Amino acid sequence: MDYHLLGPVEVCDQGTAVPIGGPRQRTVLAVLALNLGQVVPVRRLVDAAWEGSPPTTAHGQILTAVSVLRRSLGPAIKTHPGGYLLQAGLDDVDAHVFERLAAEAGELRSAGQMDACISRLREALALWRGPALGGVRTLAAEATRLEDRRLLVLERCLETELAIGGHGERVGELLALVEAHPFRERFRVLLMRALHRLGRQAEALEVYRSGRSVLVEELGVEPGPELQRMHETILAGVDEPDPAMAVPVPAVRVAPQHVLGPEWYHDPPEPVNPAFFGVTLNSTSGRMPDFRVGAVRLWDCACRWSNIQPHKEVFDWRTLDRLVAGARNACLPVLYTMGMPAGWVCPDAKRAVYLDDCRAAPPDDLADWDAYVRATVTRYQGRIEAYELWDYVNSPMRYNGSAETLAAMVQRAARIIKDVDPAALVVSPSFGDLWDPAAREQLRAYAEAGVLEHCDAVAVKLHPRDPSGPPEEMVELSGLIDRTLHAVGAQRLMWSTGPAHNIVHAPRPDQATAGAYAVRHFLAGIFARCSRMYFHYWGGRNVPIVLQAEGGPPTQAAWFVDRLQRWLTDAYVRSASHGSDDNLPPNVWQLRFVFASSPGGCPPDRPSREAVIRWTDIGKATMLAEPGTARVEHLDGTVEVPKPGSMVSVTELPVLIRYHRHDL
Fold first, then answer.
1. For a FRET experiment, which of 87, 147, 413, 428 has its CA 20 to 30 Å from that of 573?
2. Within a 10 A sphere around the Cβ of 332, how many other Cβ atoms?
């Protein structure tokens, strides 16, 4: 059977529509199809069907809706404890086919196969038969997210088509799109590009003028950087390089050159910032960890916008005051994550996943956002180091607005923050699910819309492919993110502010693995050149690796993280190496450090103390002790003094190898 969500919700069996019932059945089916292969709790189906105001008979009505669906779909709907699952292939659901085709188009574009890329994009767009989730009134936020994805793919398709010619053929389509989506700057940029290349500069400039007027009058913001650059290009009378043609040259199929040496090397070495070792708090008490950490992030601790400002004229600072005071007493810099308002800010928006009156939507009036940001920064001036401007914006559970609205919010918030507290850092809204090419494409589109333009750092969810995977996979993901941002000139310092949504469903590892993974989480962050890592999280128990449950003692994993930070006091990182690229065994990872000659001092011109941290991503390796090896320190506090010519064992639990002065 084929499940159609990109238009009226329906099911077809070999092209013939299958009766599935009324709006309630369509809602249940749509939620199950969007979460294909996952068990959807009955409570979530109730929320989707009644938008947070269910009748007392809601549970029974969901059971009835499932029974009606089963008459047509048979065993495709499976019952599990607490919920239901739709058993079908990804290619049986048009929304998932759409994402697959869009991702394939991105790969073809990167390979320089422009015609094939356009073919895939047009094939994806042809799947749409009308507004998404037609006939389902209560899934407006999800429908908006799908529509935003359609527009992103359409933008990419038109951009690629313009890159290979056909400007005249696309002007009419672009004119209609600009009229239909006046705040979507990308369509305006593409229309200006097409008109410019057709020699119609006056018309292109009028497109900019009218667009600027709309943005200033309706949103109170200036055009984004891409639209401004297009305007300047036309005024200068030159042509711009086409972004769609900026693709790598296909590689020649020859044996790759193998170059010995570290993956990266710093000269002079870079200091390891103590604030790099952060944790996200899952507590409202103001208590801080009992082991060493370098910074705290405030999220999931009852200080969302909805908690801070439950009503328009009411601010409740009590919880945030406690948390900021606790961090200040512990001398820990604070990252405060903003966003997710109460219902009064956007009363028609769907309620978010939290139990309070919280919405995953931008405000109806951006002036309310301005007031919240200004009140917060004014109150905590000099006490909050940095502001993350929303959490997980590419997840509809956290944000279901447009990229253009988000860019306007970031621009306005950054202006307020720098005006009130110039020393504070502006950290972008965070992005997750970035192993998925479609999510990286969305990150690229958000960057092009100007979301990162006014930010000091970009926040991402850096994690392994699978929640229980080795931390070193984060190094690969950081490279994918960096290349995505580099392609649009939007690189920033990278702050990792958490894991994927599904972290809570990962199995809990044994104590030894938990300790190794916790330490390697931070080491992989250094390897990936992140500027800040926030471990998820401190205080609670429902995550796979618990550092400390509030009210209980730190775990072994926490004490290992504590010792890692003690190892790296006054350290400067010199290089990062992995495997045979630096004559290491293939499963060995290494970070090399030099140390200041005195506590708190600068690194000497000639290092007086050097050390490496080594570990494996799997298994064990045995290496000859290098000349000058002084001792091998373990995370449990034990120390070895290897004899000259002896072997040193390297395992999945990192070790610190110190060298005699001046030997390296």
1. 428
2. 20
Question: Which of 570-592 are b and which e, b meaning 16 or more Cβ less than 10 Å from the residue's Cβ?
Answer: bbbbbbbbbeeebebeebbbbbb
Chain centre to alpha carbon of residue 349: 23
- Range of 10-24, 132-146, 215-229, 558-572 with top mean pLDDT: 558-572
Q: What are the residues whose beta carbons fall under 8 Å from the beta carbon of 95, sequence distance 6 or more?
A: 5, 6, 33, 34, 132, 146
CB 501 within 8 A of CB 395: yes
Average predicted confidence (pLDDT) for the chain: 90
Distance, in Å, from the CA atom of 308 to the CA atom of 311, rounded to the nearest integer, reads: 9
Q: Please tell me the distance from the alpha carbon of residue 467 to that of residue 247, in angstroms, as a whole number.
A: 32
Q: Which two tokens stand for residue 570?
A: 């006054």
Q: Whole-prediction pTM value?
A: 0.72
Mean of pLDDT values over 382-397:
94
Cβ neighbours of residue 138 closer than 8 Å, sequence gap 6 or more: 27, 48, 49, 50, 51, 350
Whether the bond into 537 is cis, omega within 30 of 0: yes
Give the span between the Cα atoms of 99 and 6, in whole angstroms. 12
Q: Which two tokens stand for residue 156?
A: 């990419």
What b/e sequence results for 132-163 when a residue is b if at least 16 CB atoms lie within 10 Å of its CB, and e otherwise? bbbbbebbbbbbbbbbbbbbbbbbbbbbbbbb
pLDDT in tens, 303-356: 999 999 999 999 999 999 999 999 999 999 999 999 999 999 999 888 887 778
Q: Where are the beta strands (DSSP E) in 288-445?
A: 295-298, 334-337, 386-388, 425-427
Centre a 10 Å sphere on the Cβ of residue 470 and count the other Cβ atoms it contains.
18
